[in-house]
User: Fold this.
Amino acid sequence: MFRLPRQVAGSLRHYGSRRIAIQRGSSPLVLRFNSTNATSSGVPPITQMNRAETSMKRFWKTVGIQERNEHFVIALDKRALKTPGGNVLEIPKNKPLAATLIAQEWENQEKLIKPYALPMTSLASRAIDGLRDESTRAGVRAALLKYLDTDTICYHEDSPKALVRLQKEHWDPLLEWAQKEFGVKINVIDSLFGEGQPAPTRRILEAVIECFDEWELAAFERAVYSTKSFILALALVKGRLTAEQAAVASHVEVASQIETWGEVEDSHDVDHRDIRRQLGSVACLTAEL
Assistant:
């Protein structure tokens, strides 16, 4: 029996449950569902994505996935979906799950467009529009590396008891994994004026993310910014954590507050859903499925 990798299985609940029919024939394979960057002139290119953002209304009737050369292309009314930068939103053939989920995001849009419900689309657009150029990727890597010295999971408190317990349960195993996996020393800091991480550690982990292509880097960038943790994001992209595990680890301090004071309606519950949506998209984009 075919099984989804554990790091993505729990992420699919955020993408609806419409059934997909697969049609094969002499024409390219098509999956059918039942049912901004500026140009040199300073004007955003006219694309389906920009049109949707402007009108905020659904203008297409059908969504499909077409096979073109070495990529999958998402089609709205048989026209290729383009990114805000005007590039065709092409997904490598080794990422059929990502292509399927992007198509499902657009099919699940009903009368009004909900941008927050397009996490896979925005992540793929980031990779295509913003991270294909090596000089741009170098700048992004440098910005993300700064999070290593302020990494959330490296700053531990000695009270309250709930927080200490959750740190030990969710953060300590990640620190142990990173040190063993990459052969580095990671400092655990117990004050606001810690010295950060050793220079050799920075060099080794910088070399790790230098190997990321635009898809992995886009996923890693989102994970770092969502969790405020370089190490946690690396564990998610490398498959050490599921999206759910990463979400729980990123909200250790919030969980401690909830244990002590209770949940704040329309705050904690919204954060709970949003972090899983963001990290779920990371896990699904990086899955070789």
User: Anything to note?
Assistant: The beta strands are 20-23, 30-33, 63-68, 71-76, 79-80, 90-92. The longest strand covers residues 63-68.
